[in-house]
Each structure stands twice: as C-alpha cells, then as structure tokens.
Amino acid sequence: MRILQRTLALFLVISSTIGCGAEQPTDGAPDSTPGNSASAPNAKRPDVPDIFVITADDLGWADVGFHGAKIGTETIDRMAKQGIVLETFYAAPVGQPTRAAILTGREPNKLGLVTPSEQYQLPRSPYNLPLLLRERNYRTIFLGKWNLGISNKRSHPMQHGFEHFYGNLHSQVGYNNHEYRNSMDWQRNRELANEKGYITSLVGLEAIELIHATPIETPMFTWVSFQAPHLPAEAPLTTLQLFGQIRDEQRRVYMAQVHILDFTIGKIVEALEESGRLDNCVIVFLSDNGGALNASAKNAPLRGGKRSCFEGGLRVPAVIWAPGRLEGEQVLTTAVTATDLYPTILSLAGIPIAEEAKVDGVDLWPLLKHGEPLQERDLCFAYSSGSHTVSAIRRGNWKLVRTAKLGEPTLRFLFDIAADPHEEQDLAPDNPDLVAELAKVLDAWIAENFANATHGKPVQGPKMTVPSEN
C-alpha cells in the first residue's frame, strides 16, 4: 500500500511541475489538520529550532534566479529574498569534502577526504554533528545522496548518528532506475527500497512524510541531500517540455533537473508551513561545490568550475533562511565556508563545542544575527586527482591559485578578489614577494593537513549496496 500511495503521489508531483499553482497531492502522510498531534501548529515547541540543510549537487553559480537564471527557481529565490544570501560562501572543489566539513566542522583534508572516492569513508567520531544533536533530543534524518562511505556497517549514515536514512550511498545513481554500475543503490535505513520514481521527487516525498509524522514537540535535524543536477542527465518528459526552446539537449535536461529540484524544495517548505514548523526553522541551502561545466552548469561571470580552485569551483549559491529568527532581504559578502556550518548549527541547538572535536570552522550566528564581524583568517583549499592538483589561499582580498599537472610546471595566479571577483587580471608577475608569502602559508597548511590525515578504511566497491556487518 505504501508503494502504491507513493507512486500515485510521485506521478501527481511530476505532472504538476507544469502548473505553478498545483496543490500538494496526497502522499500517504498522516493527516495534517489542526487536530493531528503530530502536526498541530498549536502544540508546544521546544526552545531550539528545527534545522534543515538542503544541498544541491554541482549547481552552477548562475543557475538560480537570484543570480539571474531564467530556469524557474521560485522557492530558492523566495529563501534568498526572505533570508540572507551568503554571497561569498566557499565549498570544496568537489562534493565529498564539503559533506564531511558540514558533519565535522573540520578541514576535510584532515579526514583524508581530499579526492572524491568510493574507497574512503567519513571517520567515526563521537563529535559528528548528528550524534551530538541526538543528545539534545533531535530527530536526525538524512535523505538523498550520502557519498561518505559505502562498504560496511561503519560507513553507513546510521552509524554516524542519523536515525533515519533514505537514498543512495554512492556518488550517483540513475534518476529513474536507482542503479550504480548495474547494481541497485536505493534504500530506506538498511533495507533495499524497491520503489519506482524519479529520485528528486522520491526524496522530497520522504521528507514531507517525515515532517508530518514527527511530533511537533520533537525538533528535527534533516539533511536533504539532492543528487540534482549532478549527472546522469535525466529528467521527466513533462518537465523537459517546459524548456523545449533550449536547443542544447544537455543544457535542456540540466535546466529541467534544477526546476524539479526547486519545485520539490517548495513542497518541503509547504509541509513545514502546514505542520507549524516553518517559523521555528532554520534552513540552509547550498551547492556542494561549483557548477560542473561538463554537465552544462553555468558559473559565469565567475571563472572555472567544479574541480578547480578558481571562484567558479569554490564559490557556490548559498542562503540561510530563518523566518522567525533572522531579518531577511540581506546579502552577506563576508567570506564563509562549509566548515562554519557545524559550529553554527551546534550554537543554534545550545550545544557547546568540545575542544576534543578540533573544529576548524567558526560560529556564524553572531554575524548573521547581530552583524558582528569575523576575525581575519586565511581560507585554504586543495584538491588532487592524482595527475592534476589545484590549491588556493585567500587572505583578505588577496587570493593565490595554483594549478599543477603531472610533468608540467606549476602555474600561479594572484587576484585581488574585491577589485576583480571574476579573476581576469593576474597580478602575480607584479607581486612576487606576496606570491611567495602566500605560497609558504599554503604549503604549510597542506603539509599539516595531509600529514595528519586520518583516512577512512580503504575498501572495494561492493556489488550489493546494503553495507555488510563487518
């Protein structure tokens, strides 16, 4: 019965993407009328907020409406207008390290997560974010793409503190067949979920059900980790028809993926409103890295894209929306990073940060709430694919970028980001002493982080995607 209800709901959701004012279809969730104890807006709320982290995957800087896109991202744009746009939010050059940074508050290089790989997993720690939140009675939920370990019980999201998991473990699956390399990778908790449908919508429906099913007295920490618009390029025909005027087929599919992503986020927001949670909710939206140019993402006028340390690879669309806690219609230009989300979320939950957690990020709430400036700090980034290494350091308005390909000389670029945010004018030839100074700091950071890296256990990619008990 559950599968039948969800299949019907999915069909209605996908069909309704053509109409902007569509009603939310029934999805088998508990009744959300005021008399329902799970959703009643008048029930007593705890002092701590619900916290929702919503991540897109490989979303381009210029692929949201508040940065000028004409794709139809009404919900994301609403969050941007009513919340605070984090205009200089830096993620990692690829998604796996960004995910680790959010859960630990640490530089992901220290965790051995420098290069995205199915062979490494997030190290277990009593200080990982969901474990700490559970101690404060949060219901902890992870929905969508995990990408932080696949092989055994230790690598599973539920071993890191999430009570409920629904989605895929690998870096990508088919949007319709839910397969990774011809093997099913779609599960609810530790059981394969043989459910039909487009994964963006399935993840949204799961979120809606859980919002309505969770008693209002129970605070929720929910990470909705969408795969969209990451490859493979797949979208429902009904949504593709909205972009029939786009001649580039890959770009047309990409735009449809982003449109469904936004539509689904909108339905999640509706569920938060209906359940009485929205006014006591903090929602963080971001992309896990810069837009993937090979998938038709657009980052212009920023330079570069995913896997680079130019702005287009690191700087991502990001918004924080807290209707009952933060003044909206703000654009924050202070440079912040994914590591800062961990201490910020703990601060919201009233949880002190243990020294043993070795957190690298900083609590952003005083800045967001009261405008208190952050202390000056160097921001460093690095990524290596083996044959290609990129790194960067930003100090104030200065940014040094280095790229190195195996067997070729290292290229160095220096930019004044305040005067040249698009990184068009290389100032390195005119500032050799500054280049040397920044390079020295960057080299020391890389040496320290990589030397102390605690890699997850290397593993072989499994044929079955439900982790073993080993």
Overview of the molecule:
The protein is an alpha/beta fold. It folds into 2 domains: 369 residues, Alkaline Phosphatase, subunit A (3-Layer(aba) Sandwich), CATH 3.40.720.10; 73 residues, 2-Layer Sandwich (Arylsulfatase, C-terminal domain), CATH 3.30.1120. Helix content is 26%, strand content 17%. The strands form 4 sheets. The chain has a 10-stranded mixed beta sheet with strand order 9-8-5-4-10-1-11-12-2-13, with helices on both faces. The chain has a 4-stranded antiparallel beta sheet with strand order 15-16-17-18, with helices on one face. A two-stranded parallel ribbon has the order 3-14. The chain is globular and about 60 Å long. It starts with a helix and ends in a 19-residue tail after the last helix.
Structure summarized in a few sentences:
This protein is α/β, with parallel strands linked by helices and 470 residues long. The chain has helices spanning 2-15, 74-82, 95-104, 129-135, 199-213, 237-240, 249-274, 311-314, 341-348, 365-370, 432-451, and strands at 50-56, 84-86, 89-90, 139-145, 164-168, 179-180, 183-184, 187-188, 191-192, 220-225, 281-287, 318-321, 330-332, 336-337, 379-384, 388-395, 398-405, 411-416. The protein has 2 domains: 2-370, Alkaline Phosphatase, subunit A (3-Layer(aba) Sandwich); 379-451, 2-Layer Sandwich (Arylsulfatase, C-terminal domain).
Any chance you could write out the topology, listing elements then pairs?
Layout lengths: L1 H14 L34 E7 L17 H9 L1 E3 L2 E2 L4 H10 L24 H7 L3 E7 L18 E5 L10 E2 L2 E2 L2 E2 L2 E2 L6 H15 L6 E6 L11 H4 L8 H26 L6 E7 L23 H4 L3 E4 L8 E3 L3 E2 L3 H8 L16 H6 L8 E6 L3 E8 L2 E8 L5 E6 L15 H20 L19
Parallel strand pairs: 1-10, 1-11, 2-13, 3-14, 4-5, 4-10
Antiparallel strand pairs: 2-12, 5-8, 6-7, 8-9, 11-12, 15-16, 16-17, 17-18
Helix pairs in contact: 5-7
